[in-house]
Structures are given as structure tokens and as C-alpha cells.
Amino acid sequence: MNAIRMDSGVGLLCCLSLATFLLGGCLTRKNAIPPRGVGAKGTIPTDASSAPKETRARKGLLDGYAEVLGVHTSKLQNPALYTYIDDWMGVPHRSGGTDRRGLDCSAFVGMVMRDVYGKSVPRISKDMAQHIKRKYERQLREGDLVFFSFGRRDIDHVGIYLHNNKFVHVSTSKGVIISDLHDSWYYKYFTRAGTVN
Known about the structure:
6 helices, single chain, globular, endopeptidase fold (from Nostoc punctiforme), alpha+beta
């Protein structure tokens, strides 16, 4: 009887360890924010409470992003960043994924850093956090990274800061989306931020 309990305990421990490993790169709680569709073609999906909904139906690319971010279009310093984000906007989350069928937060951030900024970052978010020059929140600029820890000690989620407290990331329930750092759910788990060296 003791041997059976021990075997099932070891099995449970192995399952928990595997789940932790698979979710380590990007973890957001699926039930944190009610699921919402990606939206009609030509819109910018956002769950940021301070952003207008269903933006860009009849606007240019940069004008639409500027409206979502609450800034003038001239503040968007890197048009290639917004073109890249727009190309991936709404792609669903898939743990370990790296393509249009689905991707996770650290894969998306790694691709943006490589393709837009020509910089290399580690594959996993907690490792990325070790390779940044840390900044205070008030110092954040377009292209900086923001890190979160959802219910664990380790960093397990990463996004790219844009403007006006908004960041782009891969939500487990909504895919690539723009969110607001100051919305209560995200701010509660916001852990670190900085620039990729």
C-alpha cells in the first residue's frame, strides 16, 4: 500500500514538473480576462481599458496604433515595429509555438527583437529578464521589455512596451494583443522592465 502511494506521488510530481516546464516560457491565466474574439480584419485587438475599442477600420496603420496608444502618430518612433506587430496581431497563443498557427510570449518577443531591432535574446522569458538593463517604469520607452510573474516567484511572461503604459504581448486567451500595464490584472503581476543590451 505504501509503495502504491509513493508511486502515485512520484507520478504526480513528474506531471507537475512537466507542466511547469511547458508553461515556463509564457504563462498568463486564461480566466483572468474574459475571452474576446480577435475582431474584424483591419482592427487592432486590445483589452486595455484606457484604449478605444475596434480601432483602425478606416485609418492608416500608424494612425490606428497611435489612437490605441493615446499618442500622436509622430511619437511612434519605429514604423517597422508597428508593421511587424500588425502582421502578427491576433495570432493565437500556443505554448512552445513559433509560427502563425500559434506562438508564446517569449517566441514573439524574440522574433521582434531579432527582426525589428537586430538583437538576440534568450528563448525563455525568465532568461530574457537576466539580459536587460533594468529601468524604472517611468523610464520605459518604445521597444523596452516588460516582465510579469503570474502566481509564481519566477518571471513567466514578457511583452514589449509601446507607449502610454501600453504593451504588446501574447495572451493565452486572446493571442497577440495590446494591453495596459496599469490595468489591475497586469499591474498586480508586473515584476521588472528594461532595455535589451
